[in-house]
Write a structure and sequence with these properties.
Elements: E1 13-17, E2 20-26, H1 32-43, H2 46-56, E3 61-71, E4 74-88, E5 93-104, H3 113-127, E6 132-136, H4 139-143, E7 148-149, E8 155-156, E9 167-171, H5 174-178, E10 181-184, H6 187-192
Parallel strand pairs: 5-6, 8-10
Antiparallel strand pairs: 1-2, 2-3, 3-4, 4-5, 4-10, 6-9, 7-9
The protein binds coenzyme A.
Length: about 200
Amino acid sequence: MNHRSHAATASTGVERVDGSSVAIRPERPDDAEPVRNLLRAAFGVEKVVTLVDLIRASPGYLPDLSLVAEGGGAVVGHVMLSRLALRTDDGGRLPILTLSPLSVAPAVHRRGIGGCLLRAAVADARAARESLIVLEGDPAYYGRHGFERAADRGVRRPSSRIPEAGFMCLPLTPGGASARGAVEYSAPFWVTDCIGP
Ligand SMILES: CC(C)(COP(=O)(O)OP(=O)(O)OC[C@H]1O[C@@H](n2cnc3c(N)ncnc32)[C@H](O)[C@@H]1OP(=O)(O)O)[C@@H](O)C(=O)NCCC(=O)NCCS
């Protein structure tokens, strides 16, 4: 597995979050169980735990772009970017990313940890010359971090079960900004039914 060294990671660093230190770094194999527990606590449903396990076992897994937030020796946050494709209107296929899931331990919500993870993931994707990030989420939350309604950019959701306003995107390159087409979810999202609210 290609785990990038911490020193080379755009995201790696220690941030002061609400008076305490939180380190953001790529996940390691030994984070798998703490991340499962975090996902259970944050989402309260097992299908998101299965989603992350299936993404890790899939060709779309990008270990350098799955990050954890560590505070007080514990994993307190996690974000995963994984590979999808955009079937473009001119007949091509553009490799893109989806940001899912994002989670923070309930005991430390609203201290900026989610925002730190989001900014780090976007910075790493940009540094890796990725074209476009899509996600399902609350427009109020992700809009603050630069995400826009994907339909407004001609980027169509992979399922009509996803509310149009909740399918968002962030272009990172001119190619990503001009791309138009339909997003195709990878198998882990269909298998776990992690699609829509
Ligand atoms: C969403 C989540 C990751 C945010 O983490 P966090 O560390 O609390 O986020 P931050 O501290 O960076 O930002 C908190 C701010 O975002 C707002 N916020 C948090 N979740 C929100 C949501 N779903 N919709 C809109 N705003 C939200 C908070 O009100 C807060 O704003 P305020 O302090 O001005 O009131 C966290 O609440 C979580 O793990 N939730 C459960 C899992 C989940 O729903 N993940 C998102 C799936 S797309």
